[in-house]
């Protein structure tokens, strides 16, 4: 099962006792901060959990799979994800402390 923003907002509501609308606003604010930081080309790192980083992709040659036509794909930025070593260890232990 995937966790959605609604699930996260419900968890915030249940664990912190915030009103539901404040929980949603808090989550939206956090996600907006992460989005703006990545948009500015900066990394987002949550210690002992994960790191999102922006990677520059250079232009490259590609092919249209429908027609087989060669084309040039432009340069672009993509978001990468790296799991922390601590989180990886925890997951491999089955989530046990």
Descriptors:
97 residues, alpha+beta, HU Protein, Chain A, 2 domains, 3 helices
Question: How would you characterize this protein structure?
Answer:
This protein folds into two domains: about 40 residues; about 55 residues, Irregular (HU Protein, Chain A). The protein is built from three helices and five strands, in the order H-H-E-E-E-E-E-H. The longest helix is centred in the first third of the chain and has 20 residues. It has a three-stranded antiparallel beta sheet with strand order 1-2-5. Strands 3-4 form a two-stranded antiparallel sheet. It has about 100 residues and is an alpha+beta fold. About 0% of the residues are buried.
The counted number of beta strands is 5
CATH topology of the largest domain: HU Protein, Chain A
Proper CATH architecture of the largest domain: Irregular
DSSP helix fraction? 40-55%
Please write the string of helix (H) and strand (E) elements. Answer: HHEEEEEH
What's this model, at a glance?
The chain has helices spanning 5-16, 20-39, 85-92, and strands at 44-46, 50-57, 60-63, 70-73, 76-83. The protein is α+β, with helices and mostly antiparallel strands. A hairpin with a 6-residue loop joins strand 3 and strand 4 (70-73).
Secondary structure topology:
Elements: H1 5-16, H2 20-39, E1 44-46, E2 50-57, E3 60-63, E4 70-73, E5 76-83, H3 85-92
Antiparallel strand pairs: 1-2, 2-5, 3-4
